[in-house]
Amino acid sequence: MIRVAVLGATGYAARELIALLLRHPEVQITALTTRQEDQPHLGDVHPTLRGRLDMQLQNLTTAEVAHSADCIFCCLPHAASAAVVSELLAADCRVVDFSADYRLNDADVYSQWYGVTHPDADRLGKVPYGLPELYREQLQGARLVANPGCYPTAAILALAPLLKSGAISPEGIVIDAKSGVSGAGRSAKAHLHFPEANENLLPYGVGTHRHTPEIDQVLSNYAGVTTDVVFTPHLVPMDRGELITAYANPGATNSGNDGLQTEELLAILRQHYADEQFIRVIEGIPGTKSVAGTNYCDITVRRVRGKVIVISAIDNLIKGASGAAVQNFNLMYGFEESAGL
Amino acid sequence: MIRVAVLGATGYAARELIALLLRHPEVQITALTTRQEDQPHLGDVHPTLRGRLDMQLQNLTTAEVAHSADCIFCCLPHAASAAVVSELLAADCRVVDFSADYRLNDADVYSQWYGVTHPDADRLGKVPYGLPELYREQLQGARLVANPGCYPTAAILALAPLLKSGAISPEGIVIDAKSGVSGAGRSAKAHLHFPEANENLLPYGVGTHRHTPEIDQVLSNYAGVTTDVVFTPHLVPMDRGELITAYANPGATNSGNDGLQTEELLAILRQHYADEQFIRVIEGIPGTKSVAGTNYCDITVRRVRGKVIVISAIDNLIKGASGAAVQNFNLMYGFEESAGL
Amino acid sequence: MIRVAVLGATGYAARELIALLLRHPEVQITALTTRQEDQPHLGDVHPTLRGRLDMQLQNLTTAEVAHSADCIFCCLPHAASAAVVSELLAADCRVVDFSADYRLNDADVYSQWYGVTHPDADRLGKVPYGLPELYREQLQGARLVANPGCYPTAAILALAPLLKSGAISPEGIVIDAKSGVSGAGRSAKAHLHFPEANENLLPYGVGTHRHTPEIDQVLSNYAGVTTDVVFTPHLVPMDRGELITAYANPGATNSGNDGLQTEELLAILRQHYADEQFIRVIEGIPGTKSVAGTNYCDITVRRVRGKVIVISAIDNLIKGASGAAVQNFNLMYGFEESAGL
Amino acid sequence: MIRVAVLGATGYAARELIALLLRHPEVQITALTTRQEDQPHLGDVHPTLRGRLDMQLQNLTTAEVAHSADCIFCCLPHAASAAVVSELLAADCRVVDFSADYRLNDADVYSQWYGVTHPDADRLGKVPYGLPELYREQLQGARLVANPGCYPTAAILALAPLLKSGAISPEGIVIDAKSGVSGAGRSAKAHLHFPEANENLLPYGVGTHRHTPEIDQVLSNYAGVTTDVVFTPHLVPMDRGELITAYANPGATNSGNDGLQTEELLAILRQHYADEQFIRVIEGIPGTKSVAGTNYCDITVRRVRGKVIVISAIDNLIKGASGAAVQNFNLMYGFEESAGL
Questions:
Q1: Which end of chain C is more exposed for a tag (fewer CB within 10 A), N or C?
Q2: What is the domain range of residue D301?
C-alpha cells in the first residue's frame, strides 16, 4: 500500500481525486491538507464524500506531510506549488503536481504568462508531462510528474497525432474550447454566481488564457514543429465536461492537392490510439455527456471544405485533472494503468 | 410624467424594475443610486439594459434623491430602507418600498425575525400591503406602499380566498415553496456558486425563513382567522420562477363531512379573481415557465384524500417584486393598473 | 462468478445498473436485451459505456435468457415484467424486478392504480420488498425481489423509523417530492423536451401518482399502522436526484403535550440507522447534489411549529433503482452488501 | 391598424412573435393557423400567452388567410412555405417568410442543401434579405421579405463590415457557433430530451448545416468577395441565445504587414453601426445572457496572434427570428423601426 497525501484538498479536482483514490486497491490516504485555519472534516468540505473517509483536513508543514506519506498529490496554486514540491522531493517523496509549475520548460515563458518568477526554475525541462498517451515511457517510475491542464489535455490528444503525421499544418491552428463551470474552480465569483452563469454562453480569456503556451510547447515538441495556436475558451452552463473544436489547415505532406479526407484522417487517429484504453476514436460526434464521470477522451475528425476539424471531449475534472493524476501515479509505481479508474 | 428614482439599483429586482419603467408611458427615470463608491454606468451594471438608458448610478444623499424625483422605488436592505423612507416621505416623495420594513404591523415581531429594532416603528400598521388583488382600495392614492415578499405573494394569492371562504382550515397549513436562484439575490455566495447550485435541489431556512410571519399576518388579517403556517422554501436550479404547493385541511364551513371537492374549490378561486387581469385560475397544473417574464400568477387547487392542495406560480422578480411595484405605482397615481406591464 | 442478464437494457436505470455490474467482482454480464428490432451495440445505446463492454443488445426469448444467465435484472414495463418473471422463476433463475409488479400485495389495488389485471397475482404478498434497511432478513437468499420505486425509497426511509417509534402520527402525512428529469424515463415526450423542462418547476401526477399505494402499504405494514399519505411529485430541471420533504403531525406516544423536538427526533433516526452504511443521518440539510452518483440516502428531521418535517435525498437512478438492485443482489447471493457500490 | 396572421403558430419563434405583436401599437392579430386537426386555444398551445389573446388556432385555407389579414407572418417549413407564399402574394397580401425558401438566390444551391426542388424558383434573387442593418433600403415598402436564419444573422452582422472594409480576408473564415436548444425547434426528439441535452455540449451538423450557403451568399454579395466559410454549430444546455466566435485571417488591405489591431477593428464596427439602435459594439465580451429576451446583437472583435476573432451574440428567437420579423414588418409599412420591440 502506498501512503498518499492530498495537499489543498478543498477544490473540485481534489474531491474527484479523493473519490478515485478511495477505490484504488494499492492506496491508503494518510493526510489531507488545507490552508484554512479551522480543520474541517472531509465530509463537511465535500458532502458527497461523507461517510467514505473519516478524516479531517489539517494545516500541516511540508515536513509533516513528507513524514506521513510516500506520494503527494499537490493541488496548490501555481508558484505556491513549486516551493512545496521541491521540498517534498528533497524529503524523498514522489509528487504529482496539479499546478502549472512544472509544465512549461522555459522560466521566461512561465514568468510572462503567470506573472511571477519561477521558484524552482532549475528543474524546468526535466519533469515529464503527464499525458501517458504521449509520454508513457518518461512517466514510468518518475518521481515528479507535471499533471497537464484540462484544455491542453483535450487539445493535444486531438491534434498531436495529426500534426506529427503531417496531416495538418502547424500554422493557423484555431482551438475553440468549451468548458463546464467546475473548470473555473470552487471560489464564488460574481460571474460564476448561478443567476449569472446559468443560461449564459460566455467566451473568456480571449487571447490571454494561460493554457496557450502549454498547448504550443507540447504540440511543437511532440511533433517537431512550431505552432502558434489561437485558443479561445468559453464558459458553458453545465457542471463538468470540456470539448474542443479545433480547426487546422491540411498539412504539407498530404496526398494530392486537397489533403486527406475524413476517412484517412480517422485512420491516423485510430492507428495512433489503437492500444490506448482511455481514448475512444469515434465516427460519430463527441459530446461532453458521453465522457462525464469517466477518464475517457472521445475524439473524431472531419474534413470540411479547406479545413480539418478535430473534436475531442473529456471530463475536465477526471481525464482533465484527477483521473490523469491517478493514471500517472499508476505509471510512477508500476501499477496497472487503470487501477482506481 | 412622473419623475422616478430607484435606490439600490444594482440588484436583480431593480434591473427588472428599470426594464418595466422604461416601457411605462407616464414615467421618466431621473436617478439611480448605489452605495458602491465608483459610479458605474447602468449598462455596465446590467448589460442587458445597455443602450436603453444612458445613465450612471450615483451615490446620492436622501435630500438629493428627494429633489430629483417624485416617486422613489426603494430597493435597499431592511432597516436601512426604513431610515431612508421616513426621510423621503417627510420630503413629500411617494415611496414603493421593496424591503420588509413596512410589511409587518408589529415592531416586536419585526425585531424577533429581523434581529434589529425597527427604525420607524410608529408607522407600522398604517402602511398598505402592496397586493392589489387583496387591498386595491387602500393602495389607490397611497403615499407609501409595502411591496410584498415574493413567497408571500404566491402563498397569499393561493390561500387567502379559500381561507376567507372557509373552504380550508387555518390550522395546520403547510406551504412547500420552490424558487429559482435569482430570489437569493445578486451577491456571490458559496452555496450559490454555479457548480454548487446547479443540478441541486436544496431546502433552506427550514422553520426560520422571514417570510413566515408575513404570510401569517396577511392571511390572518385578511381572512379574520389565526394561521400558524409551516413554510419550507427550496432552491431550484433555475434562474427565476417561484411555485408554492400548499397543503391545508378542509375548512369547518365545508358542505358535508368530507369538505369541498376540486370543482367547488376551483369555483371559489374563479369567482374571487374573476376581475383580476393578472391572476389566471387554471384547471391544469401551474409551472414556473408559464409565468416567467410576466406579471401573472397562475393558480389551481385539488382535493386529494384528506387535504386541499393549492398550487400557485409567479415570476419571483416580476409579480414577486418589480411587477407588483409597478402595479402599486399605477394604483398610487391613478394610472391604468397594467401600464408598463 | 454469477452470470447476469439485464432485460430492457436501453433505459437510464439499466445504464447505471450495467455500470455498477461492470465493477462488481462476482458478476459476469452474459446478456442484454431490448425489444427494438435492430440489435444495437451497447456503446451506441449508452455512449458513456462505450469501450467498457463489447456486447450487442439482443431480442432474446425468455428461454434463451434463462439459459444464458443465473440472475436476471428485469427492467421491463409493469405487467410485461410479471409475465416474464414468472417464467424465469420457473426456469430456476433468480430475479430482481425493477417494475412495480411485485411491490403491492393486493391484486385489486394493483389493478386500480395500474389499470391492468395482474398476470401473476398468486405470487403477490410473498415477494420481499427490496429495501434492505427495513427487510434485510427477508432479502437474504431470496429468489425474487421487488425493487422499490424511487419515491417510495426516499419517503419510506425517511418516515418509517419515526412512524414505528410513534414519534409521528400516521394521519395526515404529506409528502412533497421533487425529482430530476431522468426519473421520467428515456422516451422523448413533449413536456420533457429540453426547452420545456429546462427552467421549469412543474408539479405532476397530483393525487394520482402510482407510488402512493406503495408508500402507504410499506409504511403501514412496517409500522403496524394505517397511513393515507398525500403525495405530490414535482419535476425539477436537473438530471438526477430526488428529495422528499415530508410533513407529519407529532405522534401520540410523544413525550408531553408538544411532542418530540428536533434533537430527540434526530436521535431516533440515528439509532435506527446506526449500522446502515448507505444511510447518512445528518444535522444539516440534505440536498440532491450530495448524493448524486452514490447509493447514499441522506436524511434529517426538524420540529417546526406543529409539524415534524423529515427531509431525505437520494440519487433516483442509484439508491432509487440500480444501486438498490445491486444491494439486493448481494443479499440474495450472500456477497458483501456494498460489493459493486 | 394592420391586420396580421401567423401561419404555423405552434412553434417557439411564433410564440415570441405573437408576444411582440400583442405589444405593437399598429397591429391587430386576426388569425393564427396550425395544421393540427384539433383547433387548440392559443393559451393551451403557449401557456405563457394565456389571457393575452383569446383566440383559437385554426386550419385555414390560404384563401381564408388572405381574406382575414393584410400581412402574413409565415412560420411554415421550407418548401411548404414557398407554395403558400406565392398564393398569398397573388392575393395581394404582404408576407414575412420565416423559412429558408426565399433566402438563397440560386435554385440549384437550394435543391442541393434542402433536398427538394424550389416551388417558386422564379422569384429567387428578387426578394430582399431581411437584415435591416445591411439592406434597409430594399426592405422599405417591400411586399415579401426573407427573414434570415438565426446563425446567419449573428455571423453576418459580425463579419460583413470587416469583410467589406478589407480588414479580414474572405479566405479561410471559420465560424464556430453555439446555440440554446430552442433553436432546434419544438418537436420532441431523442437528443433533445432533457436528460440527454442537459449537461451536454454537443457539436452537430458538422460540415452539413444548411445555414452555410446562406452565410456565404450574403457575405459574398454584400462585400463583393467570395467566401467559403467553415461553419460548425454546437448545442448548448440553455433555452435561448446564440453566440458565434468567428476566426478570420487579416485582410489584404490592412495597414502594414501585420494587419489591423483590436482598436482599429473595433473602430470599423463602431463606425459601421453608429446609427443602428439594435447593434451594440462593445469593448467587453458578449455573452448570450446580455441579449436574451431582446432584439439586440452585441459584437466585439479582437486581434489575437495571426487571427482576427469576431464574437457576436443574439437571442435566436428574437433578433434571430421574431424580432427581426417585426423590424422588417415595420420597414415594410413605414412604422418606427423599433415599434413593438
A1: N
A2: 151-316
Residue A252 predicted with pLDDT over 80: no
DSSP for A53-82, written as a single string = ---B-B---HHHHHHH-SEEEE-PPTTHHH
Look up the ipTM and state it.
0.96
Annotated catalytic residues of A are: 150
CA distance D206 to D175: 11
The pTM (predicted TM-score) of the whole model is: 0.97
Q: How far apart are CA B279 and CA C316, in angstroms?
A: 35
Side-chain-facing half-sphere of C15: CA atoms under 13 Å: 21
Interchain pair C186, D198: CB under 8 A: no
Determine the distance from the C-alpha atom of residue D328 to the mean position of all C-alpha atoms in its chain, rounded to a whole number: 11
Q: How many CB pairs lie under 8 A apart between chains B and C?
A: 147
Domain count of the fold of chain B? 2
Residue carrying C-alpha cell 445572457: D289
Tell me if A338 is assigned to some domain: no
| CA gap A214, D127 in Å, rounded | 50
CA distance A143 to C128: 54
The chain A residue lying nearest C284, using CA atoms, is A44
Sheet architecture: strand order including C27-32: C27-32, C2-7, C71-74, C94-97, C144-146
* Residue A329 to residue A96: CA distance in whole angstroms: 7
Judgement on whether residues B78 and B204 belong to the same structural domain of the protein: no
| CA distance linking residue D1 with residue B341, whole number of Å | 22
Single out the residue of C152, C157, C239 nearest to residue C194, CA to CA: C239
The answer on C181 and C246 residing in a single domain is: yes
Number of continuous H segments (helices) and E segments (strands) in chain B: 11, 12
Residue C32 per-residue DSSP state: E
DSSP per residue, B233-266: EEEESSSS-EEEEEEEPBPTTSSTTT---HHHHH
Please tell me whether residues D103 and D168 are part of one structural domain.
Answer: no
Per-residue pLDDT of C73-132, as tens digits, reads 999 999 999 999 999 999 999 999 999 999 999 999 999 999 999 999 999 999 999 999
Q: Does B199 touch chain D (CB under 8 A)?
A: yes
Q: Which residues of C touch D192 (CB under 8 A)?
A: 188, 193-195
* Contact state of C230 with B198 under an 8 Å Cβ cutoff: no
Boundary-marking domain end, from A127, A142, A172: A127
